[in-house]
# Entry
Amino acid sequence: MPLPEGTYGLMAEFETPTQLVRAAKAAHGAGYRRMDCYTPYPVEEAAEAIGFHRDEVSLVCLIGGLLGLAAMFTLETWISVWAYPVNVAGRPYYSWPAFVVPAYEWTILWAGLSAAFGMLALCGLPKPYHPVFNAPNFRSGATTDKFFLCLEATDPKFDTTETRSFLEKQAPLSVVEVEY
# Structure
């Protein structure tokens, strides 16, 4: 069945986190890859069940720290050797031990800033709108006591009738279509 225009996906509502995790494992096992779980509190098993294992923030932090280190050493070298060379007690212009502390500080600063801004960028934030808020039952239960599994329409395996029947086999409280 062709995908209806303006459909984001199908969302199943569950009563307990155990049911959600079981349904997420079944969906992942059935070949669905574009899905997400929405819970009122963190459920680590749900993240593992849908195959969520991205950890690019640490790489962004490392790259930011290395860039900070290189930037400060470059700046100090340029200042000491080419821009404003000052002969202090016959010491060489390039005296790298004096550059270590400021370079370390810039490493920490750039790593922290790149981790913060990288996390926001990788999470797609700020995001003032998300289609799941169009689901009729999502606003009333997502932050209090319900657990949701949304299979997105962009998944290659997604077919409206087959996906709906698959979700209904997982014994949810309801299955609704989420529109854009």
In short: The first strand starts at residue 7 and ends at 14. The chain has two domains: 7-54+129-179, 58-122.
